[in-house]
Write a structure and sequence with these properties.
The chain is mainly alpha-helical. It has two domains: about 1-75, Orthogonal Bundle (Arc Repressor Mutant, subunit A), CATH 1.10.10; about 85-250, GntR ligand-binding domain-like (Four Helix Bundle (Hemerythrin (Met), subunit A), Up-down Bundle). Helices cover about 75% and strands about 5% of the residues. Strands 1-2 form a two-stranded antiparallel ribbon. The N and C termini lie far apart (about 90 Å). Pfam families: FCD, GntR. It comes from Eoetvoesiella caeni. This is GntR family transcriptional regulator.
């Protein structure tokens, strides 16, 4: 009888762990986010507190959560990012690395937009609308380039989350700092140029309307065209600067 009781406890703990894992993979619980208290989990799952504790123990053993005294449990960073420090250096020193990253964004975000338009729920569209409206509202205010970049990135990330493809979402999350750096490059170099800024605003509007309107092909096209346009504009700015340097050297007699 005791063995049966222990087996049942393990089964319930497995169920608790599985349900929390599902929340993590669906990005409902994000890296660094605190889990609800044991009491709240007990109420939500309809199990005993001991079952919740055992379930959390399983998640800790799997490296999915981290627990500290007095602070409770948080979702662990599931994607190790040791490469990002050197990559961030390359992005700041080698323009080609930025263009390569924009190429990756084109592939991932194009598919994200298509899936979001296909699979997005009413709740997803509410969140995407909020992020879009926050981005639009910030343009009429005195907002730093970094703050605008974060709002811009949040809009694109909300679309990705609406794809309901956990692997795609976690892949983009693992590249979060790198992706934000590419958005910052766009904001910092293009937003103060009136023509390019208006172009980006129109592209964001097309992307938003296509996803909310549940038009997969148009959403994919809008996302891809947006990233390609950003890359082309950044390359043009780089070439402008190179022409200016060459002309200045000739003027100074270095040719």
């Amino acid at each position: 009888m005791k063995n049966n009781t222990e087996a049942q406890k393990r089964q319930v703990a497995d169920v608790v762990a599985e349900r929390i894992e599902r929340l993590i993979i669906d990005n409902v619980l994000k890296a660094g986010q605190s889990l609800p208290s044991e009491r709240r989990l007990t109420e939500k799952f309809g199990v005993s507190r001991s079952a919740v504790r055992e379930g959390l123990k399983l998640l800790r053993a799997r490296g999915l959560i981290e627990t500290s005294q007095g602070k409770g449990s948080i979702v662990a960073n599931l994607m190790a990012r040791p490469m990002q420090a050197p990559m961030m250096h390359l992005l700041s020193s080698q323009p080609r690395a930025l263009y390569d990253l924009l190429e990756v964004r084109e592939l991932l975000e194009g598919e994200s937009a298509r899936l979001a338009a296909q699979r997005g729920t009413k709740a997803d569209f509410i969140l995407i609308t909020r992020r879009y409206e926050e981005l639009v509202a910030a343009h009429g205010q005195e907002t730093s380039a970094l703050a605008l970049a974060r709002l811009d990135h949040a809009f694109h990330l909300a679309i990705c989350e609406a794809s309901h493809n956990p692997v795609l979402v976690h892949t983009l999350n693992s590249l979060n700092d790198l992706l934000l750096s590419s958005v910052f490059a766009s904001v910092n170099n293009l937003y103060h140029r009136k023509a390019q800024k208006q172009q980006i605003d129109r592209q964001h509007a097309r992307l938003f309307n296509a996803v909310i309107g549940q038009l997969p092909d148009q959403a994919h096209k809008a996302a891809v065209n947006h990233i390609r346009s950003v890359r082309a504009n950044l390359k043009e700015i780089e070439q402008e600067e190179q022409r200016l340097v060459r002309a200045t050297l000739r003027l100074d007699g270095w040719d």
